[in-house]
Amino acid sequence: MAPKTEGNNTNNKAGFGLDLADASATDNKKKAKSAPKLSAKASKSKKKQKKAKGKKRDAPSSVIPKVVSNRMLRRVGIFSGIPTLLAFLTIPASYFITEQGWVEFPSTVVLFISVTCLGLGLVGVSYGIISASWDEELKGSALGISEFKLNLGRIQERRRIQKEERKRLKEEKAKEEAKAEKASAKAESTSPKTTAETSEEESASS
């Protein structure tokens, strides 16, 4: 009886080893099959990331460049700061001059000069922004007359495009509303017919 048990044990051990070998072989095959799928998914994800990065780089940024913003601030400080400073200095300067007895300024003239300087300061804000060169590489001229004309034309063109877009959206909405009204009118016109037909069928069946 002992040799049989030993043979059985050896056979069982051998069979267990073969089962493990078969299981490992099947696992390796599954891994080999799944590896190309994973690599394909990884390559697709990498391609998507590259495309997204390319789109971000190609898309125009709505943020004003730092060079252009600094240029605008400098021009606003010049064209708006100087008239505003003169507006605040007009009243004490006129008071000092009249106290010294050099010239007597009427109060209306002093007020008019002060208000005019304040108005020029407000206009200088918009002029300083529009007259600045919006190109990073071009510095622009000192007065900025040519840049003002160019940028003003850009603003007008942008406003014209926005108006056309609004008109187009309004027309599309009007068309959709007209279609909805026609569909509702058709539904209302067909509903009495169906009720009449049902009443006729009921009378015929009775």
From TrEMBL:
Comp. bias (Basic residues): 43-56
Keywords of this entry: Membrane, Transmembrane, Transmembrane helix
Pfam families: DUF3464
Comp. bias intervals (Low complexity): 186-197
Chain ranges passing through the membrane: 76-97, 109-130
Top-level lineage group: Bacteria
Family matches, as InterPro entries: PAM68-like (IPR021855)
Biased composition (Basic and acidic residues): 164-185
Protein name (Swiss-Prot/TrEMBL): Uncharacterized protein
Organism (species): Acaryochloris marina (strain MBIC 11017)
Source lineage: Bacteria, Bacillati, Cyanobacteriota, Cyanophyceae, Acaryochloridales
